[in-house]
Amino acid sequence: MTLQAGASREVDVAVIGSGPAGLTAAIYAARADLKPVVLEGEPSSTSDQPGGQLMLTTDVENFPGFPEGVMGPELMRRFRDQAVRFGAEIHTLKASRVDFSTRPHSIWVGDPAAAAPTLRAAAVIVSTGAQSIMLGLDREVDLIGHGLSTCATCDGFFFRDQHIAVVGGGDSAMEEATFLTRFASKVTVIHRRDSLRASKIMQQRAFRNERIDFMWNSVVEQYLGDSALAGLRVRNVETGATSVLGVTGCFIAIGHRPNTDLFDGQLPMKENGYLLTEPNSAATAAEGVFACGDVQDDFYRQAITAAGTGCMAAIEAERYLERLH
Ligand code: NAP
After folding, report:
1. Are 102 and 119 in contact (CB under 8 A)?
2. How far apart are CA 321 and CA 325, in angstroms?
3. Which among 155, 292, 294, 297 is annotated as catalytic?
4. Which of 4, 28, 140, 289 is the most buried if burial means most Cβ atoms within 10 Å?
5. How far is CA 218 from the centre of its chain?
């Protein structure tokens, strides 16, 4: 079926977002015969492309069930095929506006100023994910999975006995750097100031670790290497001097941003912008609206935990609809 702007098509379940959380929710909702309609996003940018962050990943070796590992895009293709197999209707479209004050809930695609919404959904599952904040340098997207990474838990293993860099000075950077010393011969933390933002305990752990050294007052200016990262051009912001750091891996740990702009004024958020859900539940404060995956998880941020919360959201939506009908 196609989706027509302004048609106000009534559906039981709409899923906004198509990473591991959204597609798991779609699989469960489809198998419950709720005929979910999924707005999977549009391949326009790195933030809200269909499939989410795994589309920017190469080898995934920690997703259970794939002992030999699996490429991120291939894993997401399998999630998607499984959802389609059970009847999920997936559209390569983006939601442009939502109104959760009405019931059924309204979702617009295309012109957000249109009088009538595209969909009216009895239950909505929000799974728009999050994105790692990046440095914005040339070739950044191309090098992800080829020496450049945003997840030490996922990719640290590939850098055994290599010299790698971590960019950032917060808790994430210290955690990543410390974790990476399990594999790397040396980890250089590149931080733009002369003191860390990280909590004292995380700082001390990193300072004590003999495999970690620090480049203070320094910013990465350029990624070196052709098809894979072969080094970084680093500039000292105090002196202006540039140098080349010969690393084969670089982990960017300067924070994450949840994709929640669409829900501003519609759903309560934590101070850091992540959606608030009830404890041990995917329920948001808006009745019939459930949130799952990285858009509401600022702690684990793993594909497997996202999939788990997607399952929770679908089961809760199903029970909500049972009560409603
Ligand atoms: P964060 O606290 O916001 O730190 C981001 C770091 O990246 C800062 O040091 C910042 O530098 C630097 N940075 C930001 N933009 C940059 C840019 N464009 N270029 C270079 N450097 C840049 O983010 P986070 O470390 O991801 O932590 C987020 C939250 O999660 C925090 O509340 C943290 O405590 C929490 N967290 C906790 C744990 C834990 O307890 N185990 C682990 C991870 C995260 P400046 O310092 O100069 O601003």
Report:
1. no
2. 6
3. 155
4. 289
5. 27
Q: How far apart are CA 176 and CA 23, in angstroms?
A: 28
Catalytic pick among 12, 48, 154, 297: 154
How much is the pLDDT for 279? 96
DSSP run (H or E) holding 289? strand 289-291
Q: How far is residue 168's CA from residue 174's CA, in Å, rounded to a whole number? A: 8
- Its pTM stands at 0.85
Q: Which residues, 6+ apart, have CB-to-CB distance to 218 below 8 Å? A: 190, 191, 192, 234, 235, 236, 237
Give, in degrees to the nearest 5, the angle at Cα 118 between 116 and 124: 115
Distance CA 257, CA 260 (A): 9
CA of 133 to the centre of ligand 1 (A): 10
Closest-lying ligand 1 atom to the alpha carbon of residue 254 = 7
Q: What are the pLDDT digits (tens) for 22-51?
A: 999 999 999 999 999 999 999 865 556 799
Ligand 1 atom closest to the Cα of residue 219 is 20
Is residue 257 within 8 Å of 294, Cβ to Cβ?
Answer: no
Query: Residue type at 199?
Result: S
How far away, in angstroms, is 253 Cα from ligand 1 center?
A: 7
3-class SS string, 143-192: HECCCEECCHHHHHHHHCCCEEEEECCCHHHHHHHHHHCCCCCEEEEECC
* Binding site membership of 273 for ligand 1 (Cβ less than 6 Å): no
At 43 the pLDDT is: 81
pLDDT, tens digit (0-9, with 9 covering 90-100), for 113-169:
999 999 999 999 999 999 999 999 999 989 999 999 999 988 999 999 999 999 999
Q: How many residues appear in the chain?
A: 325
- Nearest CA, atom 2, ligand 1: 170
